Amino acid sequence: MAAIQITNVEKNYQSLRALDRVSLSIEQGEFFGLLGPNGAGKTTLISIIAGLNRADAGTVTIEGHDVVTDYRAARSRLGVVPQELVFDPFFSVRETLRMQSGYFGLKNNDKWIDEIMHHLDLTNKADANMRSLSGGMKRRVLVAQALVHKPPVIVLDEPTAGVDVELRQTLWKFVARLNREGHTVVLTTHYLEEAQALCNRVAMLKAGRVVALDTTAKLIQRISGSQLVVRLASGQLPDSLKPLVAIPDQLLGGTQFTLRVADYNDVEPILARLREGGAVIEDMQLQQADLEDVFLQIMDGEK
Ligand SMILES: Nc1ncnc2c1ncn2[C@@H]1O[C@H](COP(=O)(O)OP(=O)(O)OP(=O)(O)O)[C@@H](O)[C@H]1O
């Protein structure tokens, strides 16, 4: 049984099609990345998964339970870390987590609450009022809140947007551990190096449609070989090299170009052509392709 089964989900906001027949099957134990540029539909999809928003068509099930017709069973299997920070400012961290436990009918949950607070480095803030916490601390509580009922499926909507390196590391360590212990994790993020490091499989959304779905490794393999990034001090990229440009937007007038190369042997002829064309190189680097390159290519509609 899939952890999350999304079948032909559609969502319209007036004339805007935010989700266009999205189908995804996320298996139990996966660490799954949902990627896409601003406005692609990620948050809309997550809020439908969480039962906070209704699809116009299609279905979503969590471990077999429909999020609309079997809401309570679906919701109890799901922990959602939303993008926005919304709290009652008058409660302490511990009270907030106890209340959330109560919502799921859990009375004596302090042992697990203590454990979550420990892993998220919140223990010394347990009795602090929510309103006294910094934004990053509030975000930790948001994560803790999503986990109070030990949900088998955890969905994180941009949990590291604007948070410091320390929280990112604390958070990923904990989430990776939960994943190793068998929890399914679905993540949206704009930090593609994070997605690359953590997710075994990735879906890319663009304008409400799934435009790529594969293992992270296979997506990266789609970009064969390496990339030569050259920055020109003067001159222009000769026409003969333009077909090698991996990121078409760079042809719109920049001085930096990312060129596809199979291996080191390709580099010297490229440099020769640049010199013949009168270009002067300011800087160059040979890089392995990564998820960000794949993302840019797919979003540019090249592949
Ligand atoms: N309540 C709403 N009313 C009208 N349009 C909406 C509403 N919520 C979202 N949209 C639109 O639906 C589209 C998808 O938005 P969504 O927030 O799901 O994108 P996203 O991929 O999460 O973007 P981001 O990366 O910026 O968070 C956008 O064009 C957005 O403007």
Secondary-structure map with pairings?
Layout: E1 4-13, E2 16-26, E3 31-35, H1 42-49, E4 57-62, E5 65-66, H2 71-76, E6 78-81, H3 93-103, H4 110-119, H5 135-147, E7 153-157, H6 165-180, E8 184-188, H7 192-198, E9 201-206, E10 209-215, H8 216-221, E11 226-234, E12 256-261, H9 267-276, E13 280-288, H10 291-299
Parallel strand pairs: 3-8, 3-9, 6-7, 7-8
Antiparallel strand pairs: 1-2, 1-4, 4-5, 9-10, 11-12, 11-13
Helix pairs in contact: 3-5
The structure holds adenosine-5'-triphosphate.
Adenosine-5'-triphosphate binds at residues 13, 16, 18, 36, 38-44.
The whole-number mean of residue pLDDT values reads 91
- Structural class by SSE content: alpha/beta
β-strand number: 13
Q: List the ligand species.
A: adenosine-5'-triphosphate
Beta-strand content? 25-35%
Morphology call = elongated
Main beta sheet: strand number and arrangement?
Answer: 6 strands, mixed
Give Rg in angstroms: 23 Å
Order of helices and strands: EEEHEEHEHHHEHEHEEHEEHEH
Distance between the termini: 32 Å
> What is the overall number of helices?
10
Which segments are poorly predicted (pLDDT under 50) over 5 or more consecutive residues? none
Helix content: 25-40%
Strand order of the largest sheet: 6-7-8-3-9-10
InterPro entries: AAA+_ATPase, ABC_transporter-like_ATP-bd, ABC_transporter-like_CS, ABC_transporter_ATP-binding, P-loop_NTPase
GO molecular function, one term: ATP binding
Keywords: ATP-binding, Cell membrane, Membrane, Nucleotide-binding, Transport
Pfam families: ABC_tran (PF00005)
